[in-house]
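Journal club prep — side note

Before the paper discussion, L.F. wants everyone to see what a predicted structure for a comparable chain looks like in token form. Sequence:
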Amino acid sequence: MRKDYIIKRGIYYVIIWFIGISLDFILPRLIPGNVLGTIIYGRIGGNLSAYGQNVQQEIETLVQQLGLSQYYHTPLYIQYFDFLKDIIRLNFGPSLTEFPISVGKIIAEAAPWTFMIVIPAVVAAFFIGNLLGRSAALHRGGIRDYVILGGTMFLYTFPVFVTGEILIEFLAVDLHIFPTGGQYNTFIFLKPTFSLPFIWSVIYHAILPVLTLVLFSLAGWIIGMRNNMIPILQEDYMNYYRLMGVPERVISSKAYRLALLPNFTSFSIALGYSVLGAVAIEYLFNYAGLGYFFNQAITGLDYPLLNGIFFMLVTAMVLSNFVADIIYGIIDPRTSKEETEGE
């Protein structure tokens, strides 16, 4: 792979990342009303009369404690440059809803729980979806093809939170097979421990969130594999193999490997998008990952926490797309060559 291709793609994604974190700064400030005043008023408890003549002093003290002085006393452009400096240092300040716990600590504790459901779900959806797509392509126009595509379209019509609600109602509430939510059994374990019973409890509680994300992600892999594989099976060299007496099993296996390449490069992108999908799933299952705290930050007007998690989501998306570009350039060198020669 050519180095100038990597450098060019790297610069492109740095620009995209910069735009993303700039939106992270701009969007909260577009909310109508005095957001900062609402935060301070909520922290005081709405009982301003209890502070008498010391209201302004109490507000100033609270602004300093919450690390909001840069929002309260400085112009917008200075706030922006301070925001960029804090982003580079990964310093998001304390959370407003979990004060005085820092945003960095919340993210560090929540991220592993999110990856614990996202990574297994993406891996499972990738393998199951590609195998089903392969089966549909090999039986194009047949009953199996219609059943797989029909089931795929049926699942695709449901938003992820509706799928989760159905699974909770059927498998947790009605049949009592799985718990309705949480990360582990809090009646048995007061805090995480490194023991087999605790690990099993974590796996047991993660099954429904993972299953929800798998069902939500399957359609893309199935349709992608089917659409990739059908044209390959109709290529002239595949017909030549058939004329030479090569078994259909060998031909289908070769076509599957070729069709798998584009989907393989999409795997890293799927990881990034699944982190976004986990936002709704974690809220639904009361699963304290990044998505759970992201919803909490929105409802609680916790903008330091919102900025920190949004930064993590943007970074995950940009990195996953960059890695996918590099992998595709390695697998198919024509991609990097054509792009660099086209300049």
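L.F.'s comment for the group: The chain has two domains: 33-75, 107-342. Keep this in mind when we get to the figures.
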